[in-house]
């Protein structure tokens, strides 16, 4: 039986999509070793992780394909803890190969069928709109095509992976779906006040994404400046964002003194909030999986450390907020 921490630990697979260039600019995490990727998924399953987050745009289907290959022969072996896959749709290429967003009923059906083929499954556990604009008009967006897929057995639940917590708040206010994937980590805690203090939050299951602040919550960056490969999206982060993330991570250096170090402590922070149903740190190696497992084993952070985090990094930069 999985522990309560492990039951709320999943894995993210953006890292398994490769560089995923749009024009000459990567939107992914660089080259990936496919055998290492499948090994990492197998390790997660063997250790008891039962939640896998992905998207059809991660490597134009590459991440979904690798998951499908890794799950062959494993989907029926989990007893009372079935494997749950959450995928996303809406980011596609137009006829000229340019990136566009499409959440239409026609593309919804096309995307679901394509994801099912790549994942080698008969139905999707969770389907989320992938980063719609925060200004998206939910009052005119019809949930019936999603409900029809639920009735047809193609889909179990649906919701939104929000671009920011402000977009997630609009989804929650409109009552669309039952699942929200939101940014939440020790540096960016806005979900606590913007979402989880509202009674409407009780109608949603929340998935915490970017729990390691895009990998900046890492011991390496406590005394070394990050240098990212050119085939990785982090290489192109604006200087002011990269500088703030590095400086803020160093403000939390006290977390590195705990067992497992700062990265494990950052995951424990996410697992400390009762509103988080599952947290999805990215993986590309079985070593990373084992590190995440160790964080779950250690359990939530003590309240005094959570308070210390909030004093050390009181808020996000003003330019991350609406004008």
TrEMBL record:
Organism: Fibrivirga algicola
InterPro entries: AKR2_Oxidoreductase, NAD(P)_OxRdtase_dom_sf, NADP_OxRdtase_dom
Entry superkingdom: Bacteria
Pfam families reported in the protein's UniProt record: Aldo_ket_red (PF00248)
Residue stretches making up the NADP-dependent oxidoreductase domain: 8-310
Protein name: Aldo/keto reductase
Lineage: Bacteria, Pseudomonadati, Bacteroidota, Cytophagia, Cytophagales
């Amino acid at each position: 039986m999985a522990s309560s921490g492990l039951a709320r630990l999943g894995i993210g697979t953006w890292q398994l999509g490769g560089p995923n260039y749009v024009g000459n600019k990567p939107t992914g995490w660089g080259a990936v070793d496919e055998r290492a990727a499948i090994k990492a998924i197998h390790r997660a399953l063997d250790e008891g992780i039962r939640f896998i987050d992905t998207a059809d745009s991660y490597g134009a289907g590459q991440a979904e394909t690798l998951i499908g290959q890794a799950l062959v022969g494993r989907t029926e072996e989990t007893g009372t803890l079935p494997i749950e896959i959450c995928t996303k749709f809406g980011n596609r290429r137009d006829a000229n190969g340019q990136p566009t967003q499409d959440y239409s009923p026609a593309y919804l059906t096309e995307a679901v069928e394509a994801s099912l083929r790549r994942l080698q499954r008969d139905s999707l556990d969770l389907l989320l709109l992938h980063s719609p604009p925060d200004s998206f008009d939910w009052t005119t967006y019809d949930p019936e095509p999603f409900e029809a897929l639920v009735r047809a057995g193609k889909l179990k639940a649906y919701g939104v992976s929000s671009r920011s917590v402000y977009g997630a708040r609009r989804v929650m206010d409109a009552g669309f779906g039952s699942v929200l994937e939101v940014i939440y980590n020790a540096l960016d805690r806005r979900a606590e006040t913007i979402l989880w203090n509202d009674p409407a939050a009780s109608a949603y299951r929340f998935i915490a994404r970017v729990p390691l602040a895009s990998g900046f919550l890492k011991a390496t960056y406590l005394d070394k400046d990050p240098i990212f490969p050119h085939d990785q999206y982090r290489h192109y982060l604006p200087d002011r964002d990269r500088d703030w993330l590095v400086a803020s991570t160093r403000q939390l250096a006290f977390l590195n003194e705990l067992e497992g170090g700062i990265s494990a402590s950052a995951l424990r922070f996410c697992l400390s909030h009762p509103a988080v149903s599952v947290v999805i740190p990215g993986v590309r190696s079985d070593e990373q999986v084992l590190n995440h497992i160790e964080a779950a084993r250690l359990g939530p952070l003590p309240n005094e450390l959570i308070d210390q985090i909030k004093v050390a990094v009181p808020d996000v930069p003003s330019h991350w907020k609406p004008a």
